[in-house]
UniProtKB/TrEMBL annotation:
It comes from the Eukaryota. It comes from Lindgomyces ingoldianus. This is Uncharacterized protein.
């Protein structure tokens, strides 16, 4: 007998619960369906390794971009300091 897959089939089975044999069959089918749902698919080792490598690469890319941005910011700050006219303070004052 196939497993119960729709709510309509469950309703029909529960209506027929007056007969002990039908009730036992209905409970068996419901239990069989719930066991199939409990099965979980496992992620393969290759997929896990691929995910880890992708995450590491993304982190490295982010760090490189942040490093370059920080370096450019320092260069701009140094250029602005060099472009500003320097005030000459007379010696001895």
């Amino acid at each position: 007998m196939p497993a119960i897959t729709t709510t309509d089939m469950i309703k029909r089975s529960l209506i027929a619960l007056g007969d002990p044999n039908t009730a036992a069959q209905a409970l068996h089918l419901i239990a069989r369906k719930s066991k199939k749902k409990a099965k979980k698919t496992k992620v393969s080792g290759g997929a896990i390794a691929g995910i880890i490598i992708a995450v590491i690469i993304i982190i490295i890319i982010i760090l490189v971009v942040l490093f370059i941005m920080r370096r450019q910011k320092k260069k701009r700050a140094q250029q602005q300091v060099q472009m500003q006219p320097q005030q000459q303070i007379p010696y001895g004052q």
